[in-house]
Amino acid sequence: MPNPGDTGIDAVRDRFRFFWSRDSSTIARYRDSSEDEAPPTPAESYTSEDGLLPPAHMMPKQWTRKRSFIMCGAVWLAMLLIFILLNLVLLLAREVWDHTSGDFGEASLVVPIPCHSHNDYWRKRPIYDALEAGCIGIEADVWLYGTELFVGHNKWSLREKNTFTNLYIDPLVRILEQRNANLNNSFKRAPEGIYEANPVQTMILLVDLKTGGPETWPQVVRQLEPLRERGWLTKVVNDKIHYGPITVVGTGNTPFELITENSTYRDAFFDAPLLKLDGHDFNPTNSYYTSVSFKKAIGTVWFGDLTEAQMTNLRNQVKEAHLRGLKVRYWDLPAWPVSIRNHIWDVLIREGVDILNVDDLKGAKKEWDLRGWPKFTANSTMPA
């Protein structure tokens, strides 16, 4: 006599097979039954030994393909709603951050360090976060639409209020006006820079042109006028460099010929390509940085350290740049793991790289304090 428990298991198994079978007539009800016997109904599968059905609320509903599709649709709809809700929260948070007032009230406590705030416009407070970390370099990617310059990583991230003037020119003017408000106009003194710990330290404003250079660069020059008319831009007059609180450097699609078209006066400089210095007259009167992708110039870092060949390339590149009087900057540095990133930073500083391209401002400041890397005190300034 078959075990009733086994019969119930077989019935459930056969129901499962029947549901997924294209030809239900071939599904046998029991393991030892003939193929001609029809599969059990849901009620038969759950009938007790005395032939009575359980209460209706205990009867499981038959799982059909339609119910499967409905359940999948409900899951996807729930995920979509969660995604939309998350984006709304992020949008509201971004609006709050955008309205955070910029302030650099602790300028007297910050000692400048040779770090460059990469993609500075992505930060909670563009310019101000970099200044509080002590960075002497900030970066703005600019796009020309009409006669206005917008700042953003790509054209889809551009916003109407994030213009070059709003994010960078106006804040720099406000900061420098506060720093130079107490100067006695009766004496002809050079304007002071942003950092009180080193008033002669210049701030490098790296302008990365994303749209056509011949059209975009003249608009950049025009919008620099508030800094220019106050005498705050580093300039070259008759081949002599006069450092100011702000040094403007053009990169990306910036045309070198537009930088150098005026042979007697210029107040913007070029970011020379580090791997293409030969055959060009790149010098401190027309260029400030010489930059290149770290991965392209040095290569991938395997096993946490540079090889001898990579170290040789690094030293040769730094030496060639310094012979021309240019500042070396590598971008696209390793970012993870953090231990390898910090080690590469240490190697670059020890080998004479002039400025670190960083995304993690707090991490860079922490490493400077822990490792005792050089800082720009009153007696140690980058242009000197």
Summarize, please.
By secondary structure, this protein is of the alpha/beta class. It is built from 12 helices and 12 strands. It has helices at 4-20, 42-45, 65-98, 128-133, 164-179, 213-223, 225-229, 256-259, 294-297, 308-323, 338-350, 361-371, and strands spanning 113-117, 135-145, 148-151, 203-209, 235-237, 240-242, 246-252, 265-266, 269-273, 287-293, 327-331, 355-358.
* Overall mean confidence score, pLDDT: 82
Strand order of the largest sheet: 1-2-4-7-9-10-11-12
* Uncertain runs: 22-32, 379-384
Kindly, what is the distance between the CA atoms of the first and last residues, rounded to a whole number of angstroms? 102 Å
Q: Beta-strand percentage?
A: 15-25%
SSE-based structural type: alpha/beta
How many DSSP H or I helices?
12
Shape: globular
Q: How many beta-strand segments?
A: 12
Helix content: 25-40%
What's the gyration radius in Å? 34 Å
Would you list the SSEs in sequence order as H and E? HHHEHEEHEHHEEEHEEEHHEHEH
Transmembrane segments: 68-93
Family: Belongs to the AIM6 family.
Organism: Colletotrichum navitas
GO biological process, one term: lipid metabolic process
